[in-house]
Amino acid sequence: MKRKPLIAGNWKMFKAEAEAVLFAEELALRVGDVQDREILVCPPSVYIYPVLHALTNTPVMVGAQNVFWEDQGAFTGEVSAPMIRSLGARHAIIGHSERRQYFAETDETVNRRLMACLRSGLTPIVCVGESLQEREAGRTLDVVGSQLKAGLAHVKADDAPGLIIAYEPVWAIGTGRTATPGIAQEVHAFIRSTLTGIFGTGVSAAVRILYGGSVKPDNIDELMAQADIDGALVGGASLEVASFERIIRYKG
Ligand code: PEP
Fold first, then answer.
1. 88 vs 41, 51, 63, 126, 163, CA distance in Å?
2. 145: number of CA atoms within 13 Å, CB side?
3. Residue 125 clears pLDDT 90, i.e. is over it
């Protein structure tokens, strides 16, 4: 099955409002002609609205970096999926390793946030990936398999084709150490076969699986040449417009 590639930028907690808007305007000018791949930027939630405004009538979509699992209530400081959706955002990153590491995110809370996205019409980008210690202990596939099974619990097969999975080996995030295309492809193929086990072949063939972890202009072409890599979730290199444009315009 042909899956439309997605290149997504995770800005983390970077950029002030004026810089975020300028970046969005510049990016739209540079990639306005791109049609055969989807483009997404995920700014800090307080800048979703101005960035969306700057990207009106452009092919660049806007998403959130997280959502809370309840739709509303006395949860001081939290932002819900319906709130994000009402701004016009269409995607949300869920379970990023920085949230697992610094904010006590677990597979169970990943699942609750994922279900909140589906209720609200947001496409979740569910992040999974092993630590260096887990890889060195030969546990990569066990860890990724159990993150997937627990993270995707309760998802109905009808909703599953709209999911996006991001394989982000923790040891490759922000470290400059990218998984080789072969290592990434091996885990992506495993993720797809795990999805087949849960939802069946039709669904697993439709789900896009992004690679994330030190994606740069000089490694994107090789990564995107792999059969089960359907796009990239880009951190550092999405903060600079020229490098993000080059990643969007990967050759392949
Ligand atoms: C990320 O934040 O999801 C990420 C992959 O970061 P980087 O590209 O900087 O490794």
1. 13, 11, 9, 20, 18
2. 12
3. yes
CB atoms within 10 A of CB 15: 18
- Tell me, using a 6 A CB cutoff, whether residue 184 lines ligand 1: no
Give the pLDDT score at 176.
Answer: 87
Judge whether 168 counts as a catalytic residue.
Answer: yes
Residue with CA nearest ligand 1 atom 1:
235
Radius of gyration over every alpha carbon of the chain, rounded to an integer in angstroms: 17
CA distances (Å), origin 148, targets 49, 111, 173, 196: 31, 9, 19, 12
Q: What CATH class has 6-248?
A: alpha beta
Q: Is the pTM of this model over 0.90?
A: yes
Averaged pLDDT, 44-55: 98
- CA of 194 from ligand 1 middle (Å) equals 24
Taking CA atoms, 12 is separated from 99, 123, 156, 181, 236, in Å, by 11, 18, 30, 25, 9
